[in-house]
Amino acid sequence: MWNSIKNSSFVHKLLNWEYWPMQITIIPVMLIWLWFSLRARDLFFFSNANPLIKNGGVLGESKSKILSHLPNWIQPLTRIVDFNNCDFIALKSLLNKEQLKYPIIIKPDVGERGFLVEKIKDDESLKNYIDRAPKTTYIVQEFIDYPLEISVLYHRFPDKSNGAITSLCIKRPLAVKGDGKSTLEQLINNYHRARFQKERLQKSFSSVWNKTIPLGEVITLETIGNHCRGATFYNGNHLIDAQLEQVFDQ
Asked: What pTM value is reported for the model?
Protein backbone atom coordinates (compact mmCIF):
# COMPACT_ATOMS: atom_id res chain seq x y z
CA MET A 1 0.00 0.00 0.00
CA TRP A 2 2.81 2.42 0.89
CA ASN A 3 4.49 1.80 -2.47
CA SER A 4 1.30 2.65 -4.35
CA ILE A 5 0.92 5.84 -2.29
CA LYS A 6 4.58 6.78 -2.74
CA ASN A 7 4.39 6.24 -6.51
CA SER A 8 1.14 8.16 -6.96
CA SER A 9 1.27 11.27 -9.11
CA PHE A 10 0.04 13.49 -6.27
CA VAL A 11 2.70 12.37 -3.78
CA HIS A 12 5.46 12.55 -6.39
CA LYS A 13 4.52 16.13 -7.25
CA LEU A 14 4.27 17.00 -3.56
CA LEU A 15 7.78 15.68 -2.80
CA ASN A 16 9.45 17.23 -5.87
CA TRP A 17 9.34 21.02 -5.93
CA GLU A 18 9.86 21.17 -9.71
CA TYR A 19 6.19 20.20 -10.06
CA TRP A 20 4.84 22.71 -7.56
CA PRO A 21 2.63 25.53 -8.90
CA MET A 22 4.65 28.43 -10.27
CA GLN A 23 2.83 30.78 -7.87
CA ILE A 24 4.64 28.99 -5.02
CA THR A 25 8.10 28.40 -6.48
CA ILE A 26 8.36 32.00 -7.67
CA ILE A 27 7.97 33.46 -4.15
CA PRO A 28 11.74 33.47 -3.33
CA VAL A 29 12.48 35.02 -6.73
CA MET A 30 9.86 37.72 -6.18
CA LEU A 31 11.35 38.61 -2.78
CA ILE A 32 14.83 38.95 -4.28
CA TRP A 33 13.44 40.98 -7.20
CA LEU A 34 11.63 43.38 -4.84
CA TRP A 35 14.77 43.82 -2.74
CA PHE A 36 16.93 44.71 -5.73
CA SER A 37 14.14 46.90 -7.15
CA LEU A 38 14.18 48.95 -3.96
CA ARG A 39 17.94 49.29 -4.13
CA ALA A 40 17.85 50.31 -7.81
CA ARG A 41 14.61 52.33 -7.45
CA ASP A 42 13.41 50.68 -10.64
CA LEU A 43 11.10 47.65 -10.98
CA PHE A 44 12.67 46.77 -14.34
CA PHE A 45 16.30 47.32 -13.33
CA PHE A 46 17.23 43.92 -14.81
CA SER A 47 16.29 45.01 -18.34
CA ASN A 48 19.64 46.82 -18.53
CA ALA A 49 21.30 43.41 -18.86
CA ASN A 50 19.65 42.87 -22.27
CA PRO A 51 18.93 46.40 -23.56
CA LEU A 52 18.17 45.24 -27.14
CA ILE A 53 15.41 42.89 -25.97
CA LYS A 54 11.98 44.16 -24.92
CA ASN A 55 11.61 44.13 -21.11
CA GLY A 56 15.06 42.59 -20.92
CA GLY A 57 13.58 39.31 -22.17
CA VAL A 58 11.46 38.63 -19.09
CA LEU A 59 8.06 38.89 -20.79
CA GLY A 60 6.52 39.77 -24.15
CA GLU A 61 9.72 39.68 -26.17
CA SER A 62 9.73 38.90 -29.90
CA LYS A 63 11.66 35.77 -30.86
CA SER A 64 12.22 37.04 -34.40
CA LYS A 65 13.69 40.34 -33.17
CA ILE A 66 16.08 38.45 -30.89
CA LEU A 67 17.14 36.25 -33.81
CA SER A 68 17.77 39.36 -35.93
CA HIS A 69 20.70 40.26 -33.65
CA LEU A 70 22.45 36.93 -34.30
CA PRO A 71 24.75 36.17 -37.23
CA ASN A 72 22.94 34.53 -40.15
CA TRP A 73 25.30 31.58 -40.21
CA ILE A 74 24.11 30.25 -36.86
CA GLN A 75 20.38 30.78 -37.47
CA PRO A 76 18.03 28.10 -38.76
CA LEU A 77 16.11 29.05 -41.89
CA THR A 78 13.32 31.21 -40.45
CA ARG A 79 10.29 32.97 -41.88
CA ILE A 80 7.73 35.21 -40.15
CA VAL A 81 4.10 34.47 -40.97
CA ASP A 82 0.99 36.46 -40.02
CA PHE A 83 -1.84 33.94 -39.56
CA ASN A 84 -4.35 36.78 -40.01
CA ASN A 85 -3.47 36.81 -43.70
CA CYS A 86 -2.42 33.22 -44.24
CA ASP A 87 -4.19 29.92 -44.88
CA PHE A 88 -2.90 26.42 -45.59
CA ILE A 89 -2.45 27.01 -49.33
CA ALA A 90 -0.51 30.25 -48.80
CA LEU A 91 1.72 28.72 -46.12
CA LYS A 92 2.34 25.60 -48.19
CA SER A 93 3.33 27.83 -51.11
CA LEU A 94 5.78 29.68 -48.85
CA LEU A 95 7.33 26.38 -47.69
CA ASN A 96 7.84 25.29 -51.30
CA LYS A 97 9.29 28.65 -52.29
CA GLU A 98 11.77 28.65 -49.39
CA GLN A 99 12.50 24.91 -49.83
CA LEU A 100 11.42 24.27 -46.24
CA LYS A 101 10.74 20.54 -46.01
CA TYR A 102 9.02 18.58 -43.27
CA PRO A 103 9.53 18.33 -40.39
CA ILE A 104 9.37 22.03 -39.54
CA ILE A 105 8.90 23.98 -36.31
CA ILE A 106 6.08 26.49 -35.86
CA LYS A 107 5.75 28.71 -32.79
CA PRO A 108 4.24 32.07 -31.85
CA ASP A 109 6.63 34.99 -32.25
CA VAL A 110 5.67 36.02 -28.71
CA GLY A 111 5.10 33.16 -26.29
CA GLU A 112 6.35 31.52 -23.11
CA ARG A 113 7.12 28.01 -21.80
CA GLY A 114 6.71 26.14 -25.09
CA PHE A 115 3.19 27.48 -25.73
CA LEU A 116 2.03 26.28 -29.18
CA VAL A 117 5.56 25.24 -30.16
CA GLU A 118 5.09 22.23 -32.41
CA LYS A 119 7.04 19.98 -34.73
CA ILE A 120 5.00 19.69 -37.92
CA LYS A 121 5.63 16.47 -39.83
CA ASP A 122 3.18 16.57 -42.76
CA ASP A 123 0.39 18.47 -44.54
CA GLU A 124 -2.28 17.13 -42.18
CA SER A 125 -0.38 18.36 -39.10
CA LEU A 126 0.06 21.75 -40.76
CA LYS A 127 -3.67 22.05 -41.53
CA ASN A 128 -4.62 21.11 -37.98
CA TYR A 129 -2.19 23.65 -36.53
CA ILE A 130 -3.50 26.48 -38.72
CA ASP A 131 -7.13 25.65 -37.91
CA ARG A 132 -6.72 25.81 -34.13
CA ALA A 133 -3.93 28.39 -33.70
CA PRO A 134 -4.91 31.94 -32.64
CA LYS A 135 -4.61 34.55 -35.37
CA THR A 136 -1.30 36.21 -34.60
CA THR A 137 2.30 36.24 -35.84
CA TYR A 138 4.25 32.98 -35.98
CA ILE A 139 7.78 31.81 -36.71
CA VAL A 140 8.23 28.99 -39.21
CA GLN A 141 11.64 27.31 -39.04
CA GLU A 142 13.54 24.34 -40.36
CA PHE A 143 13.84 21.56 -37.77
CA ILE A 144 17.36 21.19 -36.38
CA ASP A 145 17.85 17.51 -35.66
CA TYR A 146 20.75 17.66 -33.21
CA PRO A 147 21.01 15.05 -30.43
CA LEU A 148 21.43 17.57 -27.63
CA GLU A 149 19.91 20.89 -26.57
CA ILE A 150 21.81 23.21 -24.24
CA SER A 151 20.97 26.57 -22.68
CA VAL A 152 23.99 28.77 -22.00
CA LEU A 153 24.01 31.80 -19.69
CA TYR A 154 26.73 34.10 -21.03
CA HIS A 155 27.39 37.66 -19.89
CA ARG A 156 29.82 40.40 -20.82
CA PHE A 157 30.19 43.91 -19.43
CA PRO A 158 29.97 46.73 -22.01
CA ASP A 159 33.54 47.89 -21.43
CA LYS A 160 35.04 44.39 -21.74
CA SER A 161 36.08 42.40 -24.79
CA ASN A 162 35.66 39.05 -23.07
CA GLY A 163 32.74 37.60 -21.18
CA ALA A 164 32.03 34.56 -19.05
CA ILE A 165 29.65 31.63 -18.95
CA THR A 166 28.11 31.21 -15.51
CA SER A 167 25.61 28.45 -16.23
CA LEU A 168 25.13 25.62 -18.71
CA CYS A 169 21.91 23.60 -18.70
CA ILE A 170 21.57 20.33 -20.61
CA LYS A 171 18.03 19.59 -21.77
CA ARG A 172 17.06 15.99 -22.45
CA PRO A 173 13.71 15.48 -24.19
CA LEU A 174 11.00 13.22 -22.82
CA ALA A 175 11.64 9.62 -23.89
CA VAL A 176 11.13 6.01 -22.80
CA LYS A 177 13.19 2.89 -23.53
CA GLY A 178 11.59 -0.42 -24.45
CA ASP A 179 12.14 -3.54 -22.32
CA GLY A 180 10.73 -6.05 -24.81
CA LYS A 181 7.78 -6.79 -22.52
CA SER A 182 5.84 -3.58 -21.89
CA THR A 183 3.56 -1.67 -24.22
CA LEU A 184 4.13 2.02 -24.80
CA GLU A 185 1.25 2.80 -22.44
CA GLN A 186 2.84 0.69 -19.70
CA LEU A 187 6.24 2.32 -20.17
CA ILE A 188 4.62 5.74 -19.88
CA ASN A 189 2.67 4.71 -16.75
CA ASN A 190 5.92 3.52 -15.13
CA TYR A 191 7.79 6.79 -15.81
CA HIS A 192 6.47 9.71 -13.78
CA ARG A 193 7.60 12.44 -16.19
CA ALA A 194 5.76 10.74 -19.04
CA ARG A 195 2.77 9.80 -16.88
CA PHE A 196 2.06 13.48 -16.23
CA GLN A 197 1.76 13.96 -20.01
CA LYS A 198 -0.26 10.79 -20.65
CA GLU A 199 -3.46 12.32 -21.98
CA ARG A 200 -1.60 14.37 -24.59
CA LEU A 201 0.77 11.54 -25.52
CA GLN A 202 -2.05 9.08 -26.07
CA LYS A 203 -3.38 11.27 -28.88
CA SER A 204 0.04 11.65 -30.49
CA PHE A 205 1.00 7.96 -30.27
CA SER A 206 -2.39 6.30 -30.71
CA SER A 207 -1.11 4.02 -33.49
CA VAL A 208 1.52 2.37 -31.25
CA TRP A 209 -0.11 2.93 -27.85
CA ASN A 210 -0.71 -0.78 -27.20
CA LYS A 211 2.35 -2.03 -29.06
CA THR A 212 5.15 -3.82 -27.17
CA ILE A 213 8.35 -1.77 -27.52
CA PRO A 214 11.43 -3.90 -28.38
CA LEU A 215 14.27 -4.16 -25.86
CA GLY A 216 16.55 -1.11 -26.02
CA GLU A 217 14.43 0.86 -28.51
CA VAL A 218 14.12 4.51 -27.46
CA ILE A 219 10.85 6.31 -28.21
CA THR A 220 11.20 10.10 -28.13
CA LEU A 221 7.83 11.27 -26.87
CA GLU A 222 8.47 15.00 -27.13
CA THR A 223 11.07 16.95 -29.11
CA ILE A 224 10.37 20.33 -27.47
CA GLY A 225 12.87 20.97 -24.68
CA ASN A 226 10.56 22.62 -22.15
CA HIS A 227 10.05 21.41 -18.59
CA CYS A 228 6.28 21.68 -18.90
CA ARG A 229 6.53 19.31 -21.90
CA GLY A 230 8.41 16.69 -19.88
CA ALA A 231 12.05 17.58 -20.60
CA THR A 232 14.65 16.98 -17.87
CA PHE A 233 17.22 19.67 -17.07
CA TYR A 234 20.73 18.70 -15.95
CA ASN A 235 23.60 20.76 -14.57
CA GLY A 236 26.23 20.95 -17.33
CA ASN A 237 28.61 23.41 -15.65
CA HIS A 238 31.42 20.86 -15.87
CA LEU A 239 31.48 21.56 -19.62
CA ILE A 240 32.34 25.23 -19.16
CA ASP A 241 35.92 26.05 -20.17
CA ALA A 242 37.96 28.83 -21.77
CA GLN A 243 37.46 27.44 -25.27
CA LEU A 244 33.68 27.52 -24.95
CA GLU A 245 33.77 31.07 -23.60
CA GLN A 246 35.89 32.14 -26.56
CA VAL A 247 33.24 30.80 -28.94
CA PHE A 248 30.61 33.00 -27.31
CA ASP A 249 32.98 35.98 -27.25
CA GLN A 250 33.16 35.70 -31.04
From this structure: 0.77
